[in-house]
Specification:
mainly alpha; 6 helices; 80% helix; elongated
Length: 128
């Protein structure tokens, strides 16, 4: 038997792999896009409910004041902010801005920082 085959892991544990910050931003950009796409029917339903009757508006307002409603709003706010800032990062990369390894790492950390700051601000102003 080949000795290289014996050293290979039997399974791949994704939690033990140290991924670069730019890869994490890229994966989270995809996740936020999926969340935004899947939330379209929910958002349209909320819009429909809140604009048809005053009772519908009150029910949507009551939903927003529940813990689960606030948690959903926080997740959606995270998805919007992360998708926006990571999308700007990818647009810059498409324009060949910040394509060196050091710049890519710095911009990825900047995206994470901007998402965190914006999310805290929006949660305090909008959700709470």
């Amino acid at each position: 038997m080949n000795t290289l085959n014996n050293k290979r892991p039997k399974h791949l544990n994704l939690l033990k792999i140290k991924m670069p910050v730019s890869a994490v931003v890229s994966i989270l950009h995809r996740v936020s896009g999926i969340i935004l796409f899947l939330s379209i029917p929910y958002i349209l339903w909320l819009l429909s409910q809140s604009t048809t009757t005053p009772e519908g508006f009150k029910s949507v307002n009551t939903l927003f004041n529940t813990t689960s409603g606030q948690l959903i709003n926080i997740v959606l706010l995270w998805a919007v902010t992360h998708h926006f800032y990571a999308g700007l990062r990818f647009l810059l990369l498409d324009l060949n801005v910040g394509i060196s390894r050091e710049a890519t790492i710095k911009i990825a950390w900047l995206v994470n920082l901007l998402v965190f700051i914006t999310l805290i601000y929006l949660v305090v102003k909008v959700v709470l």
